[in-house]
């Protein structure tokens, strides 16, 4: 499974590449907002350029901000052209559905934009995917990546069912409630969303890579891997958690104390 860094913070991104664990980066408007607030002196174009240099040709997702297909396509092409001199691996992030509610007229602008950009050979990351049906439509439209929002699916199932508390971890197998498990149209957790979407994509030979996003803790990363995600996009804090264990620290202390001087000399 590939690891992407879910961040628009240059320092975090540089660190993850220094650690040799990053295979790409995903950004979104909210993450970029944080960077803009942090870097008031530098232009955003320059800043994104630096991110692209630091990521050494691996895929970096940049999201559009319009909601009509034709505008999203224009924005996608503009972003691609503006930054292609920094990296050949710009991925345009398109929301699977840009409508703001069920009563809105047009729910297929996202799908249309995904198809149009993919047909133009620009790689698309279909984002804000919360159902396997949306995943199927995005994959059929040619999305290179389909981003399934794990943590926010858990949030939604919890809030729909008045489950109190901000649990660190929501079980992949779901929580009991009423007559069965708490669910959203047959999805019992964010990880279940990944698993069902991955199964559909694989079963039907679709080419999209399943990208688990909105991951909030290291256990979800493991579960996303087990559920068949090709990629996990991981916040920097979760990435750091992944390498830590108390017994590893303890073991390290003991090995460092015990290593005979003569043995150490053999390695110098
Ligand atoms: O990749 C999407 C991600 O940034 C959203 O994460 O934690 O805001 O749901 P979160």
Topology diagram in text:
Layout lengths: L1 E5 L3 H9 L5 E3 L2 H10 L5 H11 L5 E4 L5 H15 L6 E6 L13 H11 L4 E6 L2 H9 L4 E5 H11 L15 E2 L2 E2 L8 H14 L5 E5 L4 H9 L4 E4 L1 H7 L3 H13 L2 H5 L3
The structure holds SN-glycerol-3-phosphate (G3P).
Radius of gyration: 21 Å
Estimate percent helicity.
40-55%
Topology as a string of helices (H) and strands (E): EHEHHEHEHEHEHEEHEHEHHH
Shape: globular
Q: Which molecules other than protein and nucleic acid are bound? A: SN-glycerol-3-phosphate
Main sheet: strands, sense, barrel: 8 strands, parallel, barrel
Number of helices: 12
CATH class reads Alpha Beta
Mean pLDDT level: 96
**Class computed from helices, strands and strand pairing:** alpha/beta
The neighbouring-strand order within the major sheet is: 1-2-3-4-5-6-9-10
Low-confidence stretches: none
Number of strand segments: 10
State the domain count: 1
Termini gap: 36 Å
CATH superfamily: Aldolase class I
SS strand fraction:
15-25%
CATH topology: TIM Barrel
């Amino acid at each position: 499974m590939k690891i992407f860094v879910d961040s628009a913070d240059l320092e975090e991104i540089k660190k993850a590449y220094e650690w040799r664990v990053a295979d790409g980066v995903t950004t979104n408007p909210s993450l970029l907002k944080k960077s803009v607030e942090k870097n008031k002196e530098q232009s955003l174009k320059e800043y994104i350029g630096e991110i692209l240099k630091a990521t050494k040709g691996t895929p970096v997702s940049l999201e559009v901000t319009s909601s009509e297909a034709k505008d999203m396509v224009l924005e996608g092409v503009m972003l691609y052209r503006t930054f292609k001199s920094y990296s050949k691996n710009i991925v345009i992030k398109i929301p699977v559905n840009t409508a703001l509610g069920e009563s809105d007229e047009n729910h297929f602008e996202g799908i249309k934009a995904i198809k149009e950009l993919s047909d133009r050979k620009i790689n698309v990351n279909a984002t804000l995917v919360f159902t396997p049906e949306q995943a199927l439509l995005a994959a059929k439209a040619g999305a290179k990546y389909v981003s399934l929002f794990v943590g926010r699916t858990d949030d939604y199932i919890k809030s729909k069912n008045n489950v109190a508390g901000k649990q660190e971890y929501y079980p992949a197998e779901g929580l009991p409630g009423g007559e069965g498990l708490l669910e959203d149209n047959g999805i019992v957790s964010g990880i279940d969303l990944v698993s069902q979407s991955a199964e559909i994509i694989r079963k039907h030979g679709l080419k999209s890579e399943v990208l688990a996003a909105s991951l909030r803790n290291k256990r979800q990363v493991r579960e996303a891997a087990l559920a068949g995600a090709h990629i996990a996009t991981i916040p920097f804090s979760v990435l750091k958690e992944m390498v830590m264990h108390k017994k590893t620290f303890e073991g390290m202390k003991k090995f460092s104390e015990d290593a005979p001087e003569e043995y150490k000399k053999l390695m110098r």
